[in-house]
Specification:
Layout (H helix, E strand, L loop, with lengths): L9 H22 L3 E7 H9 L2 H4 L4 E8 L7 H11 L4 E5 L13 H6 L4 E3 L3 H10 L4 E8 L4 H14 L4 E7 L2 H10 L7 E4 L1 H7 L5 H5 L5 E3 L4 H17 L4 E3 L11 H10 E3 L2 E4 L3 E4 L3 E3 L8 H4 L15 H5 L31 H8 L2 E2 L4 E2 H4 L1
Parallel strand pairs: 1-2, 1-7, 3-4, 3-5, 5-6, 7-8, 8-9
Antiparallel strand pairs: 10-13, 11-12, 14-15
The structure holds iron/sulfur cluster (SF4).
């Protein structure tokens, strides 16, 4: 396949569904309960809602939306730290656009910008480095966010700053790692998952081998999946084949992008600049051991956490927010008490309503939501 239309072909989708249906029927009969498959990555959540894939799959397959949207798991305290840095005099604070509207305890970055802070949206950390070169009288801070997918470009930017001797540039590092997150999900007593759609973008960097523990220790099938409808359906079919044959393996549906060994150069840059933190706080999930990275001692002169004094407070989500339960797949977005009422994409209370990869935003945009009163049609029935 070479062109995107081929990955959206309705006939091919129907052919895959015809293979999936009998395998689901057989497994559900054996187990006497519905099947739960988790898509780890927010990109998959977005694709599933956008193309209505959940409706195409048999009713007895429930897709559980996992914690793989980095904006969604950013705790309020870290947003407050961003605002505290951005409101310092002579600071230009730079960030990707989807982090601008994530609520902090008092304000978001967008609100801080409206109040006068110099906060700018960039498309890459190298754009932020360019700003630092252009404004030597300012300290330019880049808000580093994301899983292993975005970590290499941040690491390479720090190496570039070192090479060019640019010292008015720093990184507020909030990068997180996928493997401890999946482990935390597997250890959660609330969830009983039958298989995983593995994250395609992260795997492009780390490869397929780090997931072996999912199959070997937890006996769950995992298929690394692409992001087009045919990718997702083919991956579900591959998981169903494994379940049918009693196999638990890590398979790679996204082989056109994901090499088994990952991207060695990117991994080299990451390990040169970053080291694991002992723990990192996640919104709604609490602290997860070794799930975040910080800058190594040799690169601390570009570390915003060393240059600025930060509030560094742990802030609980508002009581009415149920982001943690949605992130763990314990409830569906529309089951949150404030979904579509107090919390909408225009007035987000939780981060899952901000990013297009957030389950609440995706469900609100593409789900069966009654736009008149923002209540899902299931609740009206
Ligand atoms: S509706 Fe809003 S508050 Fe509720 S889980 Fe979703 S993002 Fe969080």
């Amino acid at each position: 396949m070479r062109f995107v239309d081929e990955f959206r072909d309705p006939q091919m989708a129907e052919a895959l569904l015809q293979r999936i249906r009998p395998l689901v029927d057989k497994k559900v009969q054996q187990l006497g309960r519905p099947l739960q498959l988790m898509e780890v990555c927010g990109g998959h959540t977005h694709a599933i809602f956008r193309y209505g894939l959940e409706q195409l799959l048999p009713d007895m397959v429930e897709l559980v939306h996992g914690p793989g949207c980095p904006v969604c798991v950013l705790p309020m305290g870290r947003v407050d730290d961003c605002v505290a840095i951005a409101e310092q005099p002579d600071v230009i604070f730079t960030t990707f656009g989807d982090a601008m509207r994530v609520p902090g305890s008092k304000k978001s970055l967008l609100q801080a910008k409206a109040q006068g802070a110099d906060i700018r949206m960039v498309y890459s950390p190298l754009d932020a480095l360019q700003l630092a070169k252009k404004h030597p009288e300012k300290e330019v801070v880049f808000f580093g966010l994301g899983f292993e997918t975005t970590m290499p470009s941040t690491a390479l930017t720090i190496l570039q700053a070192e090479k060019e001797g640019i010292d008015n540039f720093s990184l507020f590092c909030n990068h997180i790692t996928i493997i401890p997150t999946i482990k935390a999900v597997l250890d959660s007593p609330d969830l009983h998952l039958d298989g995983f759609l593995g994250p395609g973008h992260v795997s492009m960097i780390i490869g397929t081998r780090p997931y072996e523990f999912v199959a070997q220790q937890y006996q769950r099938p995992m298929v690394i999946a692409g992001f087009e409808p045919i990718d997702v359906l083919q991956s579900v079919w591959m998981i169903m084949q494994q379940l049918d044959e009693g196999r638990c393996e890590v398979e790679n549906q996204y082989g056109r992008i994901v090499p088994p060994e990952g991207n060695r150069q990117a991994l080299q840059a990451v390990s040169q600049v970053f080291e694991l933190r002992e723990f990192f706080e996640w919104r709604g999930l609490g602290s997860i051991d070794h799930s975040g990275v910080r800058m190594r001692e040799e690169y601390r002169q570009w570390d915003a956490e060393q240059k600025f004094s930060l509030p560094n407070l742990k802030i609980a989500d508002p009581k009415s927010c149920q982001c943690g339960e949605v992130l763990k797949g314990v409830i569906k977005p529309w089951e949150c008490k404030v979904f579509g009422r107090a919390c909408t994409p225009e007035t987000p209370m939780g981060a899952l309503m901000v990013s297009s990869e957030g389950a609440c935003s995706a469900y609100f945009t593409y789900g069966k939501v009654n736009q008149a009163d923002h209540i899902p049609s299931e609740q009206l029935a």
